[in-house]
Amino acid sequence: MKRLCYFVNSDWYFDLHWTERAVAARDAGYEIHIISHFIGEEIIKKFKTLGFICHNVSLVAQSFNIFVFFRAFLNARKIIKEINPDLLHCITLKPCLIGGVNARRSNSPVVISFVGLGRIFLYNTVPMRILRALTVLVYKYIAGNKRSVFIFEHDKDRRKISRLVGIDYHKTIVIEGAGINPDIYKFSIEKKHEIPIVLFASRMLWSKGLGDLIEAKKILRQKNIHFVLNVAGILAEDDKDAIPLELIHHWHHEGLINWLGRSSNVYELIQKSNIVALPSIYPEGVPRLLLEASSVGRACIAYDTGGCDSLIIHNYNGLIVKSNSAQELAVELEHLLKNPQIRLEMGANGRKRVKELFSSILVINKTLQIYKDTIGC
Question: Where are the transmembrane segments (predicted)?
C-alpha cells in the first residue's frame, strides 16, 4: 500500500476542504497520513475513525518568527522522514515551503497546492516584500525537483506564480477549488422574506470584506433600502487583520449585522438567504462559501479578486464588483435586492455551473490522476 502524506497548517482547514479528497484517496488504496498543527482531540478522533494517521507538528500559521518557522521545519522534516511517504501533498504556504524543500533535497515526489496566494502577496509593506522575495526564491528551488507538480485553484494564480517562479507550464495544473457535492448541497428556490436576507460567512478578517459590506448597507439604508445582514464566521483573535469582537458586537447592537458567531451549518444559513456576499480583497482560491451558495442556487456578489470571478460570471450567476469600492458594491447589491426574478435566474445558472465545472467528483478524479502520474514519474 502506497503512503500518501498530506501536510497542511490547520486541522480545521483540512477537515473543511480536503477530507472528501483524502477519503477518496484512501478508497483508491492509499495509506493516508496527515501532518498538521492539531489543536483539539475532536478532529483527530474523526480522522482516526476514517483510518487516517495523524502527526502533530509545531507549526504556527500566522507567525512570521523565523525561529518558530525553523523549529517547525526541523520537526516536520523528522516526521516526513519517519513516514517516508510515496507522495507528499503540501497545502498552504508554510507546509509548501517546508515540504517542498524536503522533497527537493531527496528528489522525491511532491504536490504543491496553492489555495490562493495569501496575504504575503496582498500587502506591499517592506517586511512583506522581503518575505515575498524570499518565498519566490524558495519556490524556484522547489521547482527544480523534477518530480514536483504545482496545483492552482484558478488560472490567475497559475499565471502569476509561473511568471514569478519560472515553473515549466507542464508541471502546473488548475483544479477548480475544493469542489462541491451537488447531491449534498441541494438546489432550492429562495424563500420570500419581508426583509431580504444577505449572508456573509467567513473568517472575521478585514480583508474578507465585511467592513465594505457594512458601508454598503449604510449607503442603502439612507435610501430606505433595507436588508438583514446575517454574519457567521470564525474569530481570528491572534491575527493582525482580525476584526475585534467588540466591534462585531457593536455592529450587532446597532442593527448593522445579525451576528451568528461560528456556525456548523452554513448550508442551512445559505438556504435561508436571498443573496450571498463575499466582497473579499484577500487573494482567495475559489471560496467555498460561493461554491456552496451556487450549488444551492443563490445569487452571489463578490469583488474581482482571487478566484471569485473564476466561479462567478458577472450578470450570469452573480455580480462581480471592482474591489475596494463600497459605493459600487451598494449599487450592485441594490440591483439584486430589487430584482428577485434576476436572483432566481442567477441561482439556476450557478447550480448549472457548479455541476458542469466545480463538482467534487471532477476535483477528486483530477486529484487522484495527479497522484498516479506523479508517483509514476
Answer: none
